[in-house]
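[AMINO ACID CHAIN]
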Amino acid sequence: MKRNFLKITLALVIAFTTFSCDKDFNSVGSDIIGDDHFDFTKYEVQNLVAYSKATGAVQSNNLPVNALGVYNNPAFGTVKSNFVTQVELAKIEPIVGTNIEIKANDSVYIYIPYFSHLDKVVNEENVYILDSIYGNVASNINLKIYENSYILRDLNPNPDPNDILSYYQRYFSNEKALIENNLLGAPLNNSVNTQENSQFVFSNNEIIKYKTNENGNYIDNNGVVLTDPSKRVIKDRKKPGMWLSLDKDFFKAKVLMAAANKLSSNTIFKEYFRGLYFKMEQNAGEDGVLSMMDFSKGKIYIQYHSDVTTVLNGVSTVKNSKKEYVLNLNGNTVNFYEHENDAAYQSALAASDVVNGDSRLYLKGGNGSVAYIDLFGADLDANTIPDELDDLRSRNILINEASLTFFIDKSKMDLAGVNAPKRIYLFDATNNLPILDYVIDNTSSINTKNNKLNFDGIIKLDENKKGVYYKLRITNHINRIINSKDPKLNKNLRLGLSVTENVNISNNGFLSSPITLGSQQVKFIPISSVMNPLGTILYGNNVAPGEEDKKLKLQIFYTKPN
């Protein structure tokens, strides 16, 4: 049994990199390899077929980053994201003391930092800009935080013995009813300050804590009570984040007064206190806003007073003092997405043409849509070699570069309120794997989201900072298809195209219902697409007259050996 679980664990280990927001993007003409190919011969593939497919519900548990909020995208529709997480003890078997009391000057609060970067310093205060936030940042939204009573399992109680991946529990983006049918009590963020609940705002304000005594009075470094606000002493500075007061009575009863055995391990604690649910609703008259967040950095701070007895030289002393206990937002999580698709987007997906290709390709993160590309022509059952590929194989050419270029439909993507994804990702959709060009690209950047610069996929902007196109280099992939004699390597694989939240993450998540492409059942989608709430509209291969200069292009630059 131990051996089986070891195999399961090894099969599912995922290494995630640090997340940060993209702020600087490539401009037109700034490619690593430019457009001047000198003496290379250019060949443009004539038979490309590309089409969009809706993903349906996607696996969304234990993502590295999560979306929270409501985002109205004029090009795609509205997405609402809610989130559930388990909670863990920062320290097991705490000595809480006796005569426990949460006094008026004690606080119970939650802090979850946002993605942000320092902009400037004004009057000794740091001014930040929020990153990875979409919609109207000034918009307020109705936030409610509930106790969840549904157990988020680690393991699937009914696995398929023949499927090693089935041993771990999967939760999908459309399963919010599992949680919302099992919420307990009233919202825990019940402060009289409406900015902490019914009119919540993702604020960019720096969070500053000042020194106070046990009675809540502001004090200087010598403990003297201050009456002049300008002389307050800063105890701690925190980056902008979700900073909310929580119900004191709840956390006193649930944590501080809990039986000792409930606090003896995090396994027991997570069964006892099953976590928190963050529920967002758009307020009437408000535009809506959505933020990407790393909830694993979140903490709940419980301040309280209690008696602690110490014994020194046989003499017992009881002291009542202020203490703080911390809970971490760690454990299993699930992100839930609700989409109200724009009518044009919905119609385009319904009319997708897998034989002739589409005029536009719709890429949308979350439970959205991806595109599939059949190089050298449609071959849904992969049982023939396209004529164009046969011709290229007969030429005995040395391939110097091959790239796919996707032009953005600016008429749809330049609408007010539309955020374009900073990067798209190309993958082997036949085997659900990265392609060779991705694997061998070790280029790196200060911003890790810009790694793999040769493989690319980063948006190219014009002088007005508007997106123009994306380019992906697939030189090694095409070279294998055309020149390799190994039938295992030269297969004309179907490619997939998606948005990506982080190019360093190449693992997959399950689809709730497979996508059917001929005889192929597509069961997976890149996790990096699930995490990204944005979308883009690209020109496909089957464009209208007059749009030929924008159509999807596969260009091969080559030389012919003497």
The first strand starts at residue 41 and ends at 44. The chain has ten helices and 32 strands. The mean pLDDT is 91. Residues 2-12 form the longest helix (11 residues).
